[in-house]
Amino acid sequence: MRFGVLTGGGDCPGLNAVIRALVRKGVKEYGFEFVGFRDGWKGPLEGLTMPLDIAATRGILPRGGTILGSSRTNPFKIDGGVEKIQANLAKMGIDALIAIGGEDTLGVATKLDQLGVKVIGVPKTIDNDLNNTDYTFGFDTAVNIAVEAIDRLHTTAESHHRALIVEVMGRHAGWIALHSGLAGGAACILIPEVPFSIDKVCEWVESRFKSSYAPIIVVAEGALPQDGDLITKDKTLDAFGHVKLSGIGDWLAQEIEKRTGKEARTTILGHIQRGGTPTAFDRVLATRFGLHAITAAYEGDWGKMVALHGTKIARVPLASATEKLKTVDPELLKEAEIFFG
Ligand code: F6P
């Protein structure tokens, strides 16, 4: 069989580990052939390919990003997009697709599966917000990067008696903020799932200063104040209808300064969280996803996504991945609150 492989949406550490595992097992154990589609759904749409064999995937395990490139192209928003993909697959003799992506990429894969395209999904996102899998690879790396930043910010915050705000990624789900804030000893953690009271935040800031310690506030980009609106970078939308977030950190710094009289500054981690080498956890998870995805393909189990359930790799219906977002249970934030202030 001949497979097309693509990586779509925001990149994330571990993508190359999946590609390597798919190809290594697919070629060695099943005698499959692979074609790399470039830049997400743009690849099959425009027929953009690259060779993908064992040689092409050597040495990529620790490399961040994706050797295939990525994009947020949505073929369902392009006139005749789906027909073009089907025609290109037929022309190139590709029997099935392995789509590695988050809610947008797997949402497209689900619709293609319903239209009869043979497809297997692999879940990725640093946000960890895909449904029906306990973890996605990339998340552990992003959390570790954020924790390192928080540890460094603690020492400079103390030297200057400042409140420092760390804005992390997470549009609708506060997983990165919650885990990095807990691991980094934040004075408070603000997530999209639980609108926050700015008065309460200022109380926590002041109480941390009283203990002769400088507060670090960890905020997800999608967090919002109880009486306010989501803060966005600008009004433009991408092909999947997402706004560009960022700005909540600066807003918090201004409010904290105004209300407490303490100096406050913001660090926006941004794409640093998505770049660079994956942690060992992410390399192992991504590798296992790749190995199990190609076995699912060998068994002809189309329309499935590989997923982590406990310590086992499961196969779940592709559609279930995007049925709803896996957001943070507010109880988990409550659990962390004992450390706030
Ligand atoms: O979906 C992953 C993610 O990293 C989000 O947390 C973030 O809002 C978004 O991608 C940023 O996307 P882009 O790099 O396209 O601006």
Can you lay out the helices and strands and say which pair or pack?
Blueprint: E1 2-7, H1 15-30, E2 33-37, H2 42-46, E3 49-51, H3 81-91, E4 96-101, H4 103-114, E5 119-123, H5 139-160, E6 163-168, H6 175-183, E7 188-190, H7 198-210, E8 216-220, E9 232-237, E10 243-245, H8 248-260, E11 264-268, H9 280-298, E12 304-309, E13 312-317, H10 318-321, H11 330-336
Parallel strand pairs: 1-2, 1-4, 4-5, 5-12, 6-8, 6-11, 7-8
Antiparallel strand pairs: 2-3, 9-10, 12-13
Bound molecules: 6-O-phosphono-beta-D-fructofuranose (F6P).
Give a verbal description of the structure.
The chain folds into two domains: 181 residues, Rossmann fold, CATH 3.40.50; 135 residues, Phosphofructokinase domain (Rossmann fold, 3-Layer(aba) Sandwich). Helix content is 38%, strand content 19%. The strands form three sheets. The protein has a seven-stranded mixed beta sheet with strand order 3-2-1-4-5-12-13, sandwiched between helices. Strands 7-8-6-11 form a four-stranded parallel beta sheet, with helices on both faces. It has a two-stranded antiparallel ribbon with strand order 9-10. Helix 1 runs parallel beside helix 9, helix 5 packs across helix 6 and helix 7 crosses helix 8. Keywords: Cytoplasm, Glycolysis, Kinase, Magnesium, Metal-binding, Transferase. Pfam families: PFK.
Search tags:
Rossmann fold, elongated, binds 6-O-phosphono-beta-D-fructofuranose, 341 residues, single chain
